Amino acid sequence: MDSAQQSEKLYDAIVVGAGPGGSASALFLANAGKSVLVLEKSRFPREKVCGDAFSGKSIGVMRDLGLLSQIEKHSFGIVRCVTMISPNGKRVTVPFPPAKGMEFAGYTIARIDTDNIFFQEVLRHRNITVLQNFQVQSVLKNGLGAAIGVEGASTAGAREKQSFKARIVVGADGAASAVSRSLGLPNSPLAHVYSAVRGYWKGVSGLSDSIELYFIDGVLPGYLWIFPMGNGMANVGLGILSSDLQKGGRHPAAVLTDAIANHPAIKDRFASAQQVGKIGGWSIPNGSFKKQNLGEGWVLVGDAASLVDPFSGEGVGNALASGKFAAHAIISALEKDKDANPIPSSLLQDYPKNVDVYLRPEMANSYKLQRLSRFRFLLNLFIGKAATKPAARQMVIDMLASSDAKKKVESPLFYLKLLLP
Ligand SMILES: Cc1cc2nc3c(=O)[nH]c(=O)nc-3n(C[C@H](O)[C@H](O)[C@H](O)COP(=O)(O)OP(=O)(O)OC[C@H]3O[C@@H](n4cnc5c(N)ncnc54)[C@H](O)[C@@H]3O)c2cc1C
């Protein structure tokens, strides 16, 4: 099909952005026989600034799509534990619960590889048309304000505007979503966004199968992470709340390089390490802000819908899960009315319902943990006790295993148990 024919055609769905959220939406829709146009501004394989942690939730959706075995073709690390280091240098390592059907909790694998596993399947799919190097600039609307397509231009070569039509537009274009902006939706407030940076180092000493979270001054309630990549490399980064930066906090990249050179709990690990490549940065829009995620003829998924876990900063799992939920809602809307154009929000209610039931409770509990993590004395107490007291250590293990256990941070009993000798 040439580009004029692509412009003429009415697709069931246009998916803007081919990251995890967009690829998952496109694949679930296409597997159900829907015609999908995927518009992606870069060219794959492409890098994505990330900590590269790929958890149980992500593994589940990758398995659903029949792609899990492809991880083995790439370099990866296996994660079994998490080590937390308090501001005063106390350290505790606890096992993560294994991912469903696995003997370990998750992987560390570079996003250039994971995202490309999904994207290559998108490219192969007969029901999906893909345009790379195409940047969407705005959403086309009908006289009633409903989304009916998108307009944009190629980022390579001819740059004249081109538009495409569909029954629904899926905004999966990440933290700086052009779809969200064009729909007039507010950005996530700065108190609900991390400004995060990461780089790669080789030769960091003491790497294991544990991801490491250093709660250090100047970063709280965020943390500095060291994630072993399984090939002698480490993904090292940190996230600081954007609202703290606005109040005059130091740039995250400066805090990171300073910590690596000077922090007493960190610098020795990097004594023989070399940085590989540059430090990259990007925003992390947290799910502590409840952003509108559907309207007439449109849905938003993943970072475009502000769905990142506010404590861990993990967003790939929720991007994949929201992409899957959005696709299922669209498929069921078209079962109810196969000619719907644009698909009305009244037929898409399963989407926000599933996000509310399956994703929001965990994000709400993580937000409680995030707010507590602002207090260094609490982190010192909590991690210090977990390092020495089996009952407190078990509390951490329970909190990692169950979202409900995280709720306990609201209970006075939780603090009493911590304070008891
Ligand atoms: C430093 C850092 C560390 C992180 N660490 C982790 C981690 O370890 N584990 C984890 O799970 N999550 C982590 N996250 C969060 C995670 O990266 C995101 O939540 C995840 O990438 C969201 O996926 P997505 O598909 O919604 O968006 P993205 O992955 O951002 O994909 C969006 C896609 O849309 C394309 N696009 C953007 N604009 C347009 C446009 N106008 N037109 C066409 N295409 C467009 C982009 O090129 C991109 O391919 C981290 C984030 C940062 C910044």
Report on the architecture of this protein.
With 421 residues, the chain is of the alpha/beta class. Helix content is 34%, strand content 25%. It has helices at 3-8, 20-31, 56-64, 111-124, 178-182, 242-246, 252-262, 316-336, 350-372, 376-388, 390-401, 403-406, 412-419, and strands spanning 10-16, 36-39, 53-54, 77-79, 81-85, 91-95, 106-108, 128-131, 134-141, 147-154, 162-171, 193-202, 210-214, 224-228, 233-241, 274-285, 294-295, 298-300. Strands 1, 2, 8, 9, 10, 11, 17 and 18 form an 8-stranded mixed beta sheet that branches. It has a 7-stranded mixed beta sheet with strand order 6-5-13-14-15-12-16, sandwiched between helices. It has a 3-stranded antiparallel beta sheet with strand order 3-7-4. A hairpin with a 5-residue loop joins strand 9 (134-141) and strand 10 (147-154). Helix 2 runs parallel beside helix 4 (111-124), helix 8 (316-336) runs antiparallel to helix 9 (350-372) and helix 10 (376-388) crosses helix 11 (390-401). The longest helix has 23 residues, at 350-372. 48% of the residues are buried. The mean pLDDT is 94. The protein binds flavin-adenine dinucleotide (FAD). Flavin-adenine dinucleotide binds next to helix 2, strand 9, strand 12, strand 16 and helix 8.
